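Q: Hi! First time asking for a complex rather than a single chain. Here are the components, and I think there are two in total. Is that enough to go on?
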Amino acid sequence: MRNALLIAVREFLDNTQTRGFWFGILLVPLLWLVASQVPLILARKGTPTRHVALIDTTAGERLFDVVLDQLKTAESRRELFHFREWAASRLKPGQALPAVDKQPQAWSRLQEDLGPLMKADAGQFAPPAPLNRLIALPAELQWRGDLSEFEGRLRDWMRAGRLFKPVGVDEEVPLFAVAILQDGLTSNAPPILRFWSVNQADTQLQDRLVDALSRNFRSREYSRLGMDSSSIARVEGSQAQLMSFNPRKAEGEEQVGVADLLRQWAPSAFVYLLWIAVFSISQMLLNSLIEERSNRILEVLLSSVTPLELMTGKLVGVAAVGAVMTLGWIGSLVLMTFWTLHTAGAAAMAADSIAHRLPLELATLLLDSWLLPAFVLYFLLGYLFYAAVILALGSTCNNLKEAQNFTGVIALLMMVPLVSITFIPKDPNGPVATVLSWIPPYTPFVMMNRVAANPPLREVIGTLVLLLLSDVAVLWGCARIFKTAVLRTGQPASLVQLARWVLGRD
Amino acid sequence: MLAALELRHVSKSFGRFHAVQDLSLSVPAGSVYGFLGPNGAGKTTSLRIILGMLSPDSGELSVLGSPSAMSVRNRVGYLPEEKGLYSKMTAASVIAYFATLKGLSSTRANQRARELLGRYGLGAFADKKVETLSKGMGQKVQVLASIAHDPELVLLDEPFSGLDPVNQEVLEEILVDLKARGCTILFSTHVMSHVERLCDRLIILGGGRGLFEGTVSEARSLLPIRITLETAEASPLLEILPGVRSMEAQSSNRWRLELEPGASASAVLESCFERSLRLRRFDVQDPDLHEVFVHLVGPSARETALR
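A: Yes, that's all I need. Here is the structure of the assembled complex.
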């Protein structure tokens, strides 16, 4: 076994001493980081100010002010959010930010009030540029009372993508949208918003305007019908309180919280990791085997080691690579969670806020649950299954192109557990999950996904034993194929030939 | 002399194709043994059988006294026909890696790798990646990798192919050094001059069978000695010279003679003097190994080439 170990060490070093490997390890947490931070960064500074014009053609109640109020309120809330974030990161140690839920007359005044709580070098808060700025249309687009004639001019202007300098703006800007407010078709019908914009993907502004117009219309209707609109608004704003309980939890602790949600969905994240790990390291194994085969290094190796030693060494070496890779991912996930907490300003958060509790809950989950042991076990068993098949098939191919015919089929088969990631947690002990659990190539992924749902013990043990037996059978069969095929040249073997090799008839 | 390697009536078929048929050979310990044959003659299959990578269908073999090379693999070195190395490893580390697989400790393997690279002119490239070396250098590295563990038996499949004349000389030097310290060497080649210079014994394979086994001079004796003879004047007496099998007159006073097997050129020369022939030229041409090779495998090799 010394030789198998030497091969494993070389395989490990060969794969881990490449830039691509470390880039792959960094890529996953980097993607997580990007996915979690980009929306925040965009919310802070990403979106440029959009210039919007409003034309109110309504005859009855003028709706211009309604819409204007709505835009002002939204901007005010946004500034408040930015202020809270700015202030939280500049608090003195041990200080907490008092409730700031209303925009002050002047930010500098509020900053002065909070002065004793803030660090000396806090600086001055600068409100962000507005998201939407209401502007007057240029002379060519002045409203002349005829809707179709106006929209004709507007369409041509917007199609041309023209820039103009609105009053109060120092630079030339494009016209993001024009909102035309129209009376409803009947006197009691809600108003119509004709929203012209070349950007139809971002519906935030039009949704906001429709919401303001709808609320205003409902309020007016309540008054017209003799109902107290403010009472109705208050009632409409109320919502039933949800308290979710899980009877499987300990007595007195049945209420479901963040930790429970984390426990429920964490296995899915682990299944995803498991899938990426098994898939990517199987590819590494195939590449390494094909390199040795096409270079004829295999022939030299086989004059020094037995095929079984060679196969064992490669399996162990690449498994170690996979272990480092997944440890890197899990470690970086934990580090990132703590980093997010640190940068968000732990002191600024209430001790019982979700963000404050998340790293602790995550650490508790990883240390106190079956997740990590199950992950390690299913990683090893799943990896052995796929890696043995890859090695056996790879040993019959002369180059990567030939091997891709086989790996394409394996990749297709591996799509099933990937697709099942989202639906299994919704019915973890249902018939689909149960059936998939008993199919050995899928057992590691499906059972990992069911960990949180406490599947029946007989299923856990039964599927595990079946998977173990399948691994042994697959390793045995694949070793026989490997031994026969590894020095063979010429066309890749047919399925019949593979079967003959497994049965030892060639 | 004890045999380092012995094959007795070994056969191996792949389906209907008989790669090796009833092959027997004996390689004396400490000798250099040539393994000759045209493409497809069964050389590589025979080597794989010797190394235990393939099991023979029938026959027996003894490698350093063991029925299987796998049990004495640390005492055997092997260089395959198609050369390849791990392109991302350095020259020293790749030699050391293969040496550790043959039982050397990591420290000793590294020492040996640098020692060999230095001795054979590659010391400056010890820490260069294999992918940066020339083809010839890479091939030399692979030869060194096959002998770094001080094997008692070395099997080299076409070691000279792809090497320039200077590096061929270096490889010859390596083989001479190996022999000097008692190592048994078996190598296959298509270049007969290497066999003539280096080998104590040789085998010529054709169609999976052993067509000849013996020393280089025994191989040469398979073909008749040729003599070009020129006299000062035309002479009719030539036909009665002893041991001459055939005679071709190239001009009125110049002949090309072919002697009977076993006949000696000196007897012919003596007879010329006895007959008072006035010789202007007496040129003896021993058959070379190339001619013996073509004579033995020519028909079957052509068949294989045309298939």
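A: The mean pLDDT of chain B is 87. Let me know if you'd like any chain examined more closely.
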